[in-house]
Amino acid sequence: MSAAITEAIVREQLKAMGSDAFDIGVLRQNGRMLLRERWGEQQIIAAVAWLKHENARGAHIFVRPHGEHALSLIDDLTAEAVVTMEASGFEPAVLVETSPGNFQAWLNHGRVLNRELSTRVARELARRFGGDPSSADMAWALHAASRGLSEQEIEAEILHARDLSKKGGIRQQLEYARRTAEKAAARTQPLHP
Length: 193
Description:
Elements: H1 3-17, E1 22-27, E2 33-39, H2 41-46, H3 48-56, E3 60-65, E4 71-77, H4 79-87, E5 94-99, E6 102-108, H5 115-129, H6 134-146, H7 151-161, H8 170-187, E7 188-190
Parallel strand pairs: 2-7
Antiparallel strand pairs: 1-2, 1-3, 4-6, 5-6
């Protein structure tokens, strides 16, 4: 794909996400997450060649609005689930085909939701449309780790601020929180421009 087409697609996605600042994640094949926080559109456009290079080497590239925002990410959707979502009145602000037949949908609520409510909404939408409900917790945990929270702090936050009742009994809830915090801490490697 030409650089001009890539730039146009990136600009279109950033505009649809409706934020002035974004966090860019590069998840390398070795499991390490490189994170750039609070990047504006021009910084992202300037980094497209690097991001394409990382992607060509097998890395997954993530973009999300920085801080609290009006969007929910629903991950691991099928094409049929996207059609069902749209027929139910949920029109994605951004729809990304992350691999053949696998989609991410960013839904705009029209107002900013606090982190707890945003996570609950994303989890419920994932449940309703067959997406991955744990991606809401992992997205929060990766962000927390990139900002310097320890594995123990992330685990405590997951246990105390999230409704884990659907994970099973207390033992399953503790194990889920431990595993999620451990994965986030292991994957995150903050970068400073």
